[in-house]
UniProtKB/TrEMBL annotation:
Its EC number is 3.2.1.20. Its main location: membrane. It is an enzyme of class 3 (hydrolase). One of its GO terms (cellular component) is membrane. Keywords: Disulfide bond, Glycoprotein, Glycosidase, Hydrolase, Membrane, Signal. This is alpha-glucosidase. The keyword Disulfide bond applies. PROSITE patterns: GLYCOSYL_HYDROL_F31_1, GLYCOSYL_HYDROL_F31_2, P_TREFOIL_2.
Length: 759
């Protein structure tokens, strides 16, 4: 199977990285995987200036074309083939035609009225003394047939490609309404943003990766490795239009042919997911708003009263003294160090939150994190590259922001985290707000009116602003302008946090990061952010979990029962049932909302939650084995039905049920006042193509085991520390030939080192 790069450079030249040459993204990413080459397709080349590129007309490049379709307007392209020529707001006929484009109304919703003519230029060449370089397809090939247009300028790069089907998945981070994307001229922006999940909004991380299932049921994946603000438009042709305002067009193609192969090849390029500690697969509890150790103790006591499985306690910013990193409130949380040690004696683990901003306004000599950072010069700076950028966040006064791309910042962070371990005996660190979040539009005194702060084109992101709730794009980091490095902030913080947690604990690291980028799964976990206590959010959490498994971050979950708003009894109960099968299972909510831990709603709720969590705990050996296989081979842990039954077209749109690995299916109730799953919510009966209605009263969640598989299990307990001492068992589900197979990975659960073989 051969894939052609849509460019004339060699696919085997040295890879340029996220913004330029990068030692972390070198030749090792151009390699043969499963007997297929992963190609590096570049749209910019060392030694060539974008300013020196000149357009060649389409006819001169001899591009290949698909079949012609009737246009809606005389001389215009068919509506479904239109490529937006004026993607920014404010299009008019005058502005459109001034660009040499066509203006014509469209009956289809969201279709552009201003679009490129079919004979628009799409090839570029370097003029001058050097040999000519033309970026163009020489044949109709699998990824792009044909390449519709390519634009390359100083702050605007655009490329359009057709795709072979509408079964397209991925791109993030967003709250998508469906796992299989709507291709009706939908645009998604990608630029890290502190923003609660909202339809079509750019959220906390950036993942310009998609997977497409072709008509012959083969799958392929494509990554655009670019950290600048960008967007992608999905069109019904079907086609994809990528736009970014910096970096290079650095494409990687992964040929599958199965969806699992695509993810395995992708994570071989970007980094395999880390191996989580066994205890981190247990149920976890959190709340922003305990506000005192007494309230937290009461929560722990009622969980114990109902014997609900529970392994990890999280501590949000209310444990801190005035929301200052590396402190704890010695009044409201007096005795916290001793309490954490007591939890550990009882087999539980503790995770503390740290934010990526440090107040500069404490009395001199009283706040070591700022003074040490000032001494070491670790902050993101203003455009002058000297004075620290000053914004505002949770701590009192004004804050500065560590630059984790700077090696000195890593030293500073490591020192403080190791010192804090002697204060609070944590087992993991939760890094929040690391987009980075700033409660202002840029820093003091505001962003200068320059093209880097206000580029000619701003992608389709919230507020059409690069500085809203973050720092000015012209701020300076160790790697360059914040314009280029903004969406790398969380990614650059995750690895040093992972390393220091391992150093501090001597065990496998637990790092939970809100902001992620390509490759973050190698060192961290993620949750889906500040969701809402709504049935919509319950349902869409499945989509987010499936997508992050595609992105190489399988240790993923959503805040069970919702973070924002007050939950309800039924919603929270159904969410506890679903959340019991998130790879990362944590109940968490916001300050000012009612308590929502599974022990607070009374006897019946607690009993149902306990029974469901015991099923999870009994299957943890199977889940742990899936994480081992993901760590070693790079595949998914949670996956869609399409992933396993790719040739069945009906599965391509199913996102109301999901699988652990190939063998265990979860089919939750996702609608209010429902006691059945109608038509199985398209859940296969006996794993065949027939569908059925399943009874699901309030105390039940439908679960299925696939014939032909053996699942290892272990008697559950209230912590994994206890359950790991219990007897093993096997669930054997025979296929129609009376056969079944399975595997088990087992070790001590938290040691650092290369894992052993499967059993």
């Amino acid at each position: 199977m051969v894939w052609w790069c849509p460019c004339s450079c060699s696919a085997l030249t040295s890879v340029q990285g996220i913004m330029g040459t990068s030692p972390k993204m070198g030749r090792k990413h151009i390699q043969r995987i499963n007997n297929n080459w992963i190609w590096h397709c570049c749209g910019a080349f060392q030694g060539f200036s974008p300013a020196a590129l000149t357009a060649f007309p389409l006819a001169a490049l001899g591009g290949c074309r698909g079949s012609e379709q009737a246009a809606q307007c005389p001389g215009a392209v068919a509506v479904q083939k239109r490529i937006d020529c004026h993607p920014q707001p404010g299009a008019s006929q005058e502005a459109c035609e001034a660009r040499g484009c066509v203006w014509c109304s469209a009956g289809a919703s969201n279709a552009p009225w201003c679009f490129f003519p079919e004979d628009s230029p799409y090839g570029y060449a370097r003029s001058g003394s050097r040999s000519q370089l033309i970026l163009s397809p020489s044949v109709c090939h699998r990824w792009d047939s044909p390449l519709v247009d390519l634009f390359f300028s100083n702050q605007f790069l655009e490329i359009t490609t057709t795709v072979p089907s509408t079964s397209v998945y991925g791109f993030g981070e967003h709250e998508h309404p469906t796992f299989k994307h709507n291709m009706d001229f939908v645009t998604y922006g990608m630029y890290a943003r502190d923003q609660a999940p909202t339809s079509f909004a750019n959220l906390y991380g950036v993942h310009p990766f998609y997977m497409c299932v072709e008509p012959d049921s083969n799958a392929h994946g494509v990554l655009l490795l670019n950290s600048n603000a960008q967007d992608v438009t999905l069109s019904p042709n079907p086609s994809l239009t990528f736009r970014t305002i910096g970096g290079i067009l650095d494409f990687y193609l992964f040929m599958g042919p199965t969806p699992e192969n695509v993810v395995q090849q992708y994570t071989e390029a970007i980094g395999r997911p880390h191996m989580p500690a066994y205890w981190s697969l247990g149920f976890q509890l959190s709340r922003w708003g305990y506000n005192s150790l007494d309230v937290l103790k009461a929560t722990v006591d009622r969980m114990k009263h109902y014997d609900i499985p529970y392994d990890v306690q999280h501590y949000d910013i209310d444990y801190m003294e005035r929301r200052l990193d590396f402190t704890y409130d010695k009044v409201n949380f007096a005795g916290l160090p001793e309490f954490m040690k007591e939890l550990k004696k009882n087999g539980k683990h503790n995770v503390v939150i740290l934010d990526p901003f440090v107040t500069k306004d404490e009395e001199p000599g009283t706040y070591r994190p700022y003074e040490l950072g000032q001494e070491m010069g670790v902050w993101v700076n203003n455009s002058d590259g000297v004075t620290p950028a000053v914004g505002q966040a949770w701590p009192p006064g004004y804050s500065v922001f560590p630059d984790f791309t700077n090696p000195r910042t890593v030293e500073w962070w490591t020192t403080l985290c190791l010192e804090f371990k002697d204060v609070l005996d944590y087992d993991g660190i939760w890094i929040d707000m690391n987009e980075p979040s700033n409660f202002m539009r840029g820093q003091i005194p505001g962003c200068a009116d320059t093209e880097i702060n206000n580029p000619p084109y701003t992608p389709s992101i919230t507020d059409r602003s690069l500085a809203e709730k973050t720092l000015c794009p012209d701020s300076k980091t160790y790697l360059g302008d914040h314009y280029n490095t903004h969406s790398l902030f969380g990614w650059s913080q995750t690895e040093p946090t992972f390393n220091v947690v391992q150093q501090a604990t001597g065990k496998r690291a637990f790092v939970l990061s809100r902001s992620t980028f390509v490759g973050s799964g190698k060192h961290g976990a993620h949750w889906l952010g500040d969701n809402f206590s709504l049935w919509k959010d319950l349902r869409r959490s499945i989509i987010g979990i499936l997508e992050f498994n595609l992105f190489g971050i399988p240790y993923i979950g959503a805040d069970i029962c919702g973070f924002n708003y007050n939950t309800t009894y039924e919603l929270c109960l159904r969410w506890m049932q679903l959340g019991s099968f998130y790879p990362f299972s944590r109940n968490h909510n916001s300050e000012g909302n009612i308590e929502q831990d599974p022990a607070v709603f009374g006897d019946t709720f607690a009993e149902i939650s306990r029974d469901t969590l015991r099923i999870r705990y009994s299957l943890l050996p199977y889940l742990y084995t899936l994480f081992y296989e993901s760590h070693v081979h790079g595949g998914t842990v949670a996956r869609s039905l399409m992933h396993e039954f790719t040739s069945d077209q009906e599965t391509h749109g199913i996102d109301t049920a999901f699988l652990w690995g190939p063998a265990f299916m979860i089919a939750p109730v996702l609608e209010e006042a429902s006691t059945v799953i109608k038509n199985g919510l398209e859940v296969p009966s006996a794993w065949k193509k027939t569908y059925t209605t399943v009874s699901a009263p309030l105390n039940k969640i439908p679960l299925y085991i696939r014939g032909g598989y053996i699942l290892p299990q272990q008697a559950p307990a209230t912590t994994t520390t206890e359950s790991r001492l219990n007897p093993f068992g096997l669930i054997i589900a025979l296929d129609e030939e009376g056969q079944a197979s399975g595997s088990l990975f087992w070790d001590d659960g938290d040691s650092i080192g290369k894992p052993g073989p499967l059993v």
